[in-house]
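Could someone model magnesium ion with this protein?
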Amino acid sequence: MLDKKVEDLKILFSEKEIENRTKELADEINKDFGCEKDLILICVLKGSSIFCCDLSKHLKMPVQMEFIRVSSYGNAKESSGHVQAMDLTLPNLENKNALIVEDIIDTGCTMKFLTELLCRTHKPQNLKVVTLLNKKIARKVPIEPDYYGFEIDDKFVVGYGLDYEGYFRNLPYVGYFEN
Ligand code: IMP
Ligand code: MG
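Reply:
Sure, complex below.
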């Protein structure tokens, strides 16, 4: 049974803060990629689903959305370090602009795996990474996103797509349990 209650969550980033920061990130992405060429958003399920959809609404270029699924966590709160590809079906990315959209970069193992794989097998012309949350302090492999919403401490957070045992993804804010 689920051992955490939504009432015990401390809010880290409110719905409004996330909305404002998402618009700022979209502005930066619009500026860097320009409005002419197509952009393929690669949404890493399930965690980045809400962020990716909200971000996409503010992008000005012609956008295609693709969804991939990887797993590194299972139900534990600690990353296993072992990344499992569940579904990496993607269209041809050659000569395309692509942007991987993540909810959080923690150890960095998932993002390292994804960027290396995509560069090797799909050869996009330009591949960048945006993540809503950046847990820099928890990094185990050297990888940095091109864009991030907020840097956070080494806390386990939920909400706005991020889950604990499959729950709390639907919350409109990001929060953490104090213990
Ligand atoms: P990494 O491979 O350790 O960087 O972990 C990346 C994935 O682990 C993220 O895409 C999330 O799905 C999950 N994850 C990492 N930290 C958290 C957290 O604080 N809350 C919920 N999920 C997390
Ligand atoms: Mg994720």
